[in-house]
Amino acid sequence: SQRPYVIDEMISAKSIAARIEALARDIQEEFAGTNKLVVVGLLRGSFVFIADLVRELDLPVEVDFLEASSYGDGMESSREVRILKDLRGQIEGRDVLVVEDIVDTGHTLSHVSQFLLSRLPARLRTIALLDKPARREVDFKADWIGFEIPDEFVVGYGIDFAQRNRNLPFIGKVRFTDV
Ligand code: PRP
Ligand code: MN
Ligand code: MG
């Protein structure tokens, strides 16, 4: 972006870590006894969250990735979701956990869920670190949510603004300084 901005911390790295520990316990309970959990990260935004989440899971897991069409460098949802990179592995008859950084309009995760359900997994569950219910355009709710947040433009912990700031260890909100 050409516009100048600063980033204000919204959710600290410590709060994120504590929340992930609690989420991991819930997920372990849900999938207790499974020997075939596939954890699917949606590229690119989920890469930090999935890395931290799987390391808290005391379950046998496989990790796979899928990429859906992106907002690109813009701030608006395209609404029409396409699969740009498919899974490497099979999920039929397996337990699947789809990991997302944020649910905004809901188009991405609802489309990806339908797409994966058509392959007849044994169970499909979804988790998103952040949920912005105020922005929802389709009726979708992840099975687990880390934090519900207001309608702010957030970055960090995997989430970008024009491909920048994914490497921040916390969730911050963008504040434009030219207004
Ligand atoms: C962002 C975010 C979610 C999606 C949420 O991804 O990471 O995947 O948008 O928006 P929605 O609920 O309105 O569909 P983006 O398309 O920017 O790609 P990225 O993960 O590579 O940044
Ligand atoms: Mn994404
Ligand atoms: Mg993005």
UniProtKB/TrEMBL annotation:
Any one GO biological process: IMP salvage
Q: Which residues form the Phosphoribosyltransferase domain?
A: 14-161
Question: SUPFAM superfamilies recorded for this chain?
Answer: PRTase-like
In short, the EC number is 2.4.2.8
Q: Where would you say this protein principally sits, based on its record?
A: cytoplasm
Give the required cofactors. Mg(2+)
Listed under catalytic activity are: IMP + diphosphate = hypoxanthine + 5-phospho-alpha-D-ribose 1-diphosphate; GMP + diphosphate = guanine + 5-phospho-alpha-D-ribose 1-diphosphate
Q: Which EC main class describes this enzyme?
A: transferase
Q: List the keywords (alphabetical).
A: Cytoplasm, Glycosyltransferase, Magnesium, Metal-binding, Nucleotide-binding, Purine salvage, Transferase
Which pathway or pathways does this protein act in? Answer: Purine metabolism; IMP biosynthesis via salvage pathway; IMP from hypoxanthine: step 1/1
List the Gene3D superfamilies: 3.40.50.2020
Q: Which InterPro entries match?
A: HGPRT, Hxn_phspho_trans, PRTase-like, PRTase_dom
Q: Decide whether keyword Glycosyltransferase is in the record.
A: yes
For this record, the Gene Ontology CC terms, alphabetical, are:
cytosol
* UniProt superkingdom: Bacteria
Give the subcellular location.
Answer: Cytoplasm
Q: One MF term in GO for this entry?
A: hypoxanthine phosphoribosyltransferase activity
Name the family the entry cites: Belongs to the purine/pyrimidine phosphoribosyltransferase family.
NCBIfam families in UniProt: HGPRTase (TIGR01203)
The cross-references to PANTHER family, in alphabetical order and at most eight, read:
HYPOXANTHINE PHOSPHORIBOSYLTRANSFERASE (PTHR43340:SF1), HYPOXANTHINE-GUANINE PHOSPHORIBOSYLTRANSFERASE (PTHR43340)
Put simply, this protein is called: Hypoxanthine phosphoribosyltransferase
